[in-house]
Structures are given as structure tokens and as C-alpha cells.
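tool=predict chain=A
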Amino acid sequence: MNANAAGAPEAQTRGHGPGETGPTSERDAQQLTGPALSFGLTEEVEALRGEPAWERFDRNAKTLVKDGAFRVVLTALKAGAALDEHRVSARVMVQTVHGRLRVHLSAPDAAVIDLPAGHLAVLQPGITHRVEAVEESAFLLTVAGLAEEGVQAESR
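tool=predict ok
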């Protein structure tokens, strides 16, 4: 157990402290929260593509920031891969870092948003959508305003 600033014990989750991940066979431990965090996105994407999960599946992802109701997740998708239709009870931003994505919005907001590298889309809470990789791609998913209990997502 760690002690907080007041000297009281703090519980650790799965062998690591609050605001950090534990090490795995594929990744070192990392800080998820702090006063200032910085990431080299090119290096992070290359690392995702170098992991065994990238060889076995059509995607790989890494949470970069997890702080209260705010999340930033870097996701790499192989060409043709898609995230199933879903909706999130928070504001969502999808920013293409590499490649080209399409974000499909379902009725009543039916539309297709083309997202080449360097573009982003912001969705209001509750918008049903699906993300598709037109070509091998990487994107940042930023979610703001999550309930403290975690993501309230509903797949269809």
C-alpha cells in the first residue's frame, strides 16, 4: 500500500497505484494522469503496430490519459476494420493521426464523415455511430464527460 499526502494508506489496483497502468508482457507501466503529460504519437502508433495483438487482430489500442471523466485512447485499425455501431453518453472526438477513417452516423443523424489524416469529428453525447478504417489508420479517441463509474456505451 502507498500513503497519500496525509499519510493515510491508499489502496492499489492490480499492483499499481492510482493514475497509472501496471506493466504487462507487451507494455511498460505508464502514468495515465498528472499535471502535464506528453506523447510522441508517431512512436506510440509504431509501438502499437509492433505488439503481438496487432498481428493477431484487426486493431490495437492504448489508453494514454484516464483522469476522472476524461479519456484519450490511441487506436490503430487495419484497412477494412470497423468499430461496431455504438453510442456513448459523453462528448466524443475522433481525430485521425494516420490513414483515413469514415464515421457513420445512424438515423436520425444519418451521415458519413470522411476523416483523412489531420481531420477530426466531434459528436454530441448519445449519437449512434460506427468507425471504419478505409485504409490502415490510427486515431485519437477523446471522451469527455463520462460518468465516474466509467463509460456508458451501448452497442447495437
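The two ends are 41 Å apart (CA to CA). Confidence is low (pLDDT under 50) at residues 1-16.
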